[in-house]
Amino acid sequence: MSQQFDVIVIGGGPGGYIAAIRAAQLGFKVACIDEWKNAAGGPAPGGTCTNVGCIPSKALLQSSEHFEHANLHFADHGITAKDVKIDIAKMVGRKDAVVKQNNDGILYLFKKNKVTFFHGRGSFVKAVDGGYEIAVKGAKDETLSGKQVIVATGSNARALPGAAFDEETILSNDGALRLGAVPKKLALIGSGVIGLEMGSVWRRLGAEVTILEGLPTFLGAVDEQIAKEAKKAFDKQGLKIELGVKVGEIKTAKKGVSIAYTNAKGEAQTLDADKLIVSIGRVPNTIGLNAEGVGLQLDERGAIVVDGDCKTNLPGVWAVGDVVRGPMLAHKAEEEGVAVAERIAGQHGHVNFNTIPWVIYTSPEIAWVGETEQQLKARGAAYKAGTFPFLANGRARALGDTTGMVKFLADATTDEILGVHIVGPMASELISEAVVAMEFKASSEDIARICHAHPSLSEATKEAALAVDKRTLNF
Ligand code: FAD
Ligand code: NAI
In terms of domains, do 132 and 20 share one? Predict the structure, then answer.
């Protein structure tokens, strides 16, 4: 006899666990199945984000930033820090502890919200009258049945053909987050979000880092002016980024790896390194779900096909997060999870794709929401732009971090904000104001007229809004 639920969620990452909690809040009897195991074989809900993504990468970015500050910037404040050393095992141990706090937090939230958690792999068995039968294979095998199923099985790192991840020399995000020592020479393929964040971590700790990027443009999805400013900062830090390369054969030896590639000029090159991180994007994960068994439709990339409401081709089956179209971001997965739970309850859940913020947690941080200047040009939009440099912001000077700027793009006629782009200190926090403004369809004048605390980095946001009307007060 199977255990009956109103809603079964397969996958306990940010898409899945949040969907489960919201569905439980709405009064449904909910199960969430997740197979992630911690080092001891126990449950570790939270998915890629918590275990090998957002959270551990930010923990290492923080540790490595402290190390760099102690080495390079303390002296500016009159602080002498001699013989600054880093204990990699301790740093990685701290990161693991932060991950565990988050795993445990989710288990607590399941209890608090009366979500029944199953540790194991969930797969479709068959459609049954008014729902689906789902098998759980784990320490204990179970059969569940649910009226509604939400699939939130996430994504996996994409490997380069002929260079499978061994997590020793050729690393995915997983291996990149648990190196036991600082590699002398570190190569990365792909200068996207992971390439830049992980490249920054290990460069700050002393590795000689080279990133090989296939595209001729640096951060093509980012506003060009912002990407240019960020590239200048990364060059200054010694983060080597080669654009427009074509990667050839990758050979591993007992020690290290050798990467053959053609550079932008068409010259044959070889890059030798101790470790290689491959960060060329991620692929949706439906392994072991038995999607084909029940006729769940996938697209050519392996993503579950959904409509604008996250409905799949099967009645009562929904899918959210990295396993469906759209940006692979934790907060996008969460918003979809909430919206689906609310739709199941007959409410009008909604995700506004135009106001999903992006953040790259490098130093300087890069954050944006809405359209870039190149996108506005491409669609022939009439717009006004305003920028304000952190160099002219009092708080940034006091912090000792004046790199970058805030940039506003607004409709030339209505002044509605169309995009906000930031490169600089705490861009990850500053972007929220822009998201709120865009959600409320604010004009740049609205932001320019709002009182911002002094001294604060957010004054640069206000000044960039003033700059749209060419009336900055402090520049
Ligand atoms: P996932 O988090 O991948 O969770 C899916 C879960 O489902 C996993 O636990 C998996 O084990 C489980 N699962 C899969 N199949 C089954 C099955 N059949 N049965 C049971 N369980 C199953 N995003 C941000 O927004 N901000 C960041 O700073 C950020 N940093 C990142 C850093 C790195 C290094 C990486 C790799 C990603 C980062 N991301 C970040 C992206 C973010 O991690 C993902 O967008 C997010 O985790 C997607 O959530 P999800 O719930 O769709 O899938
Ligand atoms: P990405 O899509 O950000 O970047 C991949 C890069 O690799 C691109 O620049 C691409 O042109 C390049 N590339 C692809 N194939 C290549 C090849 N064969 N040779 C050389 N270059 C090649 O993907 P990434 O960095 O792997 O991250 C995956 C996703 O995880 C991100 O897109 C993002 O959605 C999420 N993420 C989010 C973070 C955040 O929000 N701060 C942090 C890390 C990851």
Answer: yes
In this structure, the answer to whether residues 344 and 372 fall within a common structural domain is no
Ligand 1 close to Cβ of residue 333 (< 6 A): yes
Instruction: Determine if ligand 1 sits within 6 Å of the CB of residue 189.
Output: no
**Does residue 151 contact residue 66 with C-beta atoms inside 8 Å?**
no
Ligand 1 mutation pick, 32, 121, 143, 153, max ligand atoms within 8 A of CB: 153
Full-prediction pTM beyond 0.90? yes
Give every CB contact of residue 323 below 8 A, 6+ residues apart in sequence.
Answer: 11, 15, 151, 152, 153, 154, 155, 284, 285, 286, 303, 304
Residue 396 makes CB contacts below 8 A (sequence gap 6+) with: 390, 402, 424, 425, 457, 460
> Tens digit of pLDDT for each residue in 429-472?
999 999 999 999 999 999 999 999 999 999 999 999 999 999 99
Beta bridge partners of 37: 43
What is the predicted pLDDT for the residue at 254? 83
Given a cut of 70, the residues of the chain with pLDDT beneath it are: none
Tens-digit pLDDT profile for residues 147-158 = 999 999 999 999
Our answer on whether the CB atom of 282 is closer than 6 Å to any ligand 2 atom is yes
What are 78-132's pLDDT values in tens digits? 999 999 999 999 999 999 999 999 999 999 999 999 999 999 999 999 999 889 9
CATH number where 393 lies: 3.30.390.30
What number does the ligand 2 atom closest to the CA of 192 have? Answer: 4
Q: Ligand 1, residues 8, 22, 38, 48: which to mutate, most atoms within 8 A of Cβ?
A: 48
- Residue 473, in any domain of the structure: no
Domain boundary among 260, 279, 298: 279
Q: How many domains does the chain have?
A: 3
pLDDT at 442: 98
Same domain, 10 and 104: yes
Query: Residue 77: how many CB atoms within 10 A of its CB?
Result: 8
Domain closes at, from 351, 373, 408: 351
Name the nearest CA neighbour of 300 among 278, 279, 283: 283
Q: Which atom of ligand 2 is nearest the CA belonging to 157?
A: 26
Which residues are the active-site residues?
454
